């Protein structure tokens, strides 16, 4: 074994942060600002990689999943979004249940281990539609984990059904929902939220809904949308609010920073994020979110090439086959809509990491094309 290279930087502000990271101590708000502001991105990345390797060694995770977006009809009209449509507008769609179940079965021949289900806030679809959708999927694909509905959708469905959030969660669980994805968090700061997604639940409500999800015994993910009109303070504030809730619930599995894609949105005049911004965001996330087990470099959002680099800057997961991505592609993403399992493994191996296929709960999966088993 060769000795690890010692930490080196030209940025004196990083020295005390490095001392804390190497001692396993928690970083502060100001440390977060210094990490965002440092010109020495390689040193920031070195620190994030140190933490990442301490937690996960050489392993990098991927999964075999399928996204299903049952409707793009949405009452919210968020400025950040190119996916949502008003009811009856050109390009709007809502899947009949049979259509959603057929979609679930379509795509690659490899047996998927996860359905990732999110959609618009439809003004008329009742909670029963979603319960039937999930129940029907469980009947047809009993081994597949159902990761469905963001905190925003749950709060919306509960209000429409005149139920409390815990009652809504109980019904979703009974129907077969196994965990929740991390979307809809955007940026918690009110000032930014009012501009990019005015009609969504506010940051406090997102966090309170996540708390109730975790109290119901379900795990969830968390996201942050960056690269629009937020500043470094907003980003650090967002990350530390997630960290504080995680201290209480331990219900978050994975954090996924999401770069804003401006095309076809009312914010189309904003520039796209650069590769360096994306890489730094992964590293700062790994360093500030010391109590999150996983940091995901979602390849669809950051491109496969940047996701590969991210595996050496703090990320331990690149997400999955996806098969049919819509939200980013409506906003101008140029990545393929899906990727085969072999290709995900090749990307990880070429980044010098050891690919491990996981299920949604990070248990390792062994498989043939048609079937899989999960290590317990
Ligand atoms: O909530 C919407 C974001 C999210 C745009 O939990 C946009 O494993 C960029 O949450 N540009 C949905 N982002 C995606 C998401 C997700 C993805 C992969 C894995 C997981 C997980 C969760 O996408 C939305 C919003 O934050 N989004 N529009 C846009 N124009």
Could you outline the blueprint of secondary structure elements for this entry?
Blueprint: H1 14-22, H2 29-37, H3 41-56, E1 59-63, E2 65-68, H4 97-105, E3 114-117, H5 127-140, E4 145-148, H6 151-161, H7 165-175, E5 179-180, H8 190-196, H9 203-215, E6 219-226, H10 232-249, E7 252-259, H11 275-288, E8 294-295, H12 299-310, E9 317-320, H13 327-330, H14 341-350, E10 354-357, E11 365-367, E12 372-374
Structure description:
This protein is an alpha/beta fold and 376 residues long. The protein has a single domain, classed as TIM Barrel. Helices cover 42% and strands 14% of the residues. It contains 14 helices and twelve strands. The strands form four sheets. A four-stranded parallel sheet has the order 5-6-7-8. A three-stranded parallel sheet has the order 9-1-10, with helices on one face. α2 crosses α10, α5 runs parallel beside α7 and α9 runs parallel beside α10. The chain binds ligand V47. The site of ligand V47 has 22 residues, from β6 and β7.
Uncertain residue ranges? none
Derived from helix and strand composition plus strand pairing, the structural class reads: alpha/beta
* SS field, number of helical segments: 14
Q: Write the CATH fold name.
A: TIM Barrel
The mean pLDDT is: 96
What global shape is seen?
A: globular
The counted number of beta strands is 12
Domain unit count: 1
């Amino acid at each position: 074994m060769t000795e690890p290279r010692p930490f080196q930087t030209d940025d004196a502000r990083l020295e005390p942060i490095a001392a804390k990271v190497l001692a396993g101590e928690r970083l502060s708000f100001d440390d977060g600002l210094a990490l965002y502001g440092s010109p020495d991105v390689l040193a920031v990345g070195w620190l994030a990689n140190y933490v990442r390797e301490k937690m996960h060694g050489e392993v990098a995770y991927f999964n075999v999943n399928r996204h299903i977006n049952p409707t793009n009809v949405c009452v919210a009209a968020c400025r950040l979004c190119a996916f949502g449509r008003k009811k009856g507008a050109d390009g709007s769609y809502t899947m009949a249940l049979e259509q959603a179940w057929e979609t679930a079965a379509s795509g690659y021949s490899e047996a998927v281990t996860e359905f990732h289900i999110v959609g618009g806030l439809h003004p008329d679809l009742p909670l029963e539609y979603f319960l039937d959708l999930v129940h029907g999927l469980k009947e047809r694909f009993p081994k597949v984990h159902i990761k469905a509905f963001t905190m925003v959708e749950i709060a919306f469905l509960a209000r429409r059904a005149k139920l409390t959030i815990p009652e809504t969660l109980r019904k979703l669980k009974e129907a077969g929902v196994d965990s929740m994805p991390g979307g809809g968090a955007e940026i918690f700061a009110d000032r930014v939220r009012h501009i990019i997604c005015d009609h969504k639940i506010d940051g406090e409500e997102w966090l309170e809904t996540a708390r109730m999800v975790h109290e119901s015994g379900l795990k969830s993910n968390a996201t942050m949308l960056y690269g629009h009109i937020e500043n470094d303070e907003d980003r650090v504030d967002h990350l530390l609010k997630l960290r504080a809730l995680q201290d209480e619930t331990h219900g978050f599995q994975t954090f996924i920073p999401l770069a804003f894609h401006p095309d076809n949105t009312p914010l189309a005049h904003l520039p796209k994020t650069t590769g360096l911004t994306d890489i730094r965001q992964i590293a700062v996330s790994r360093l500030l979110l010391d109590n999150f087990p996983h940091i995901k470099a979602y390849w669809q959002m950051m491109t496969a090439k940047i996701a590969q680099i991210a595996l050496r800057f703090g990320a331990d997961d690149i997400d999955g086959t996806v098969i049919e991505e819509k939200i980013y592609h409506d906003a101008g993403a140029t990545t393929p809509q899906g990727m085969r399992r072999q290709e995900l493994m090749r990307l990880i191996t070429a980044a010098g990491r050891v690919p491990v296929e996981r299920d949604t709960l990070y248990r390792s999966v062994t498989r043939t094309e048609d079937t899989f088993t999960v290590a317990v």
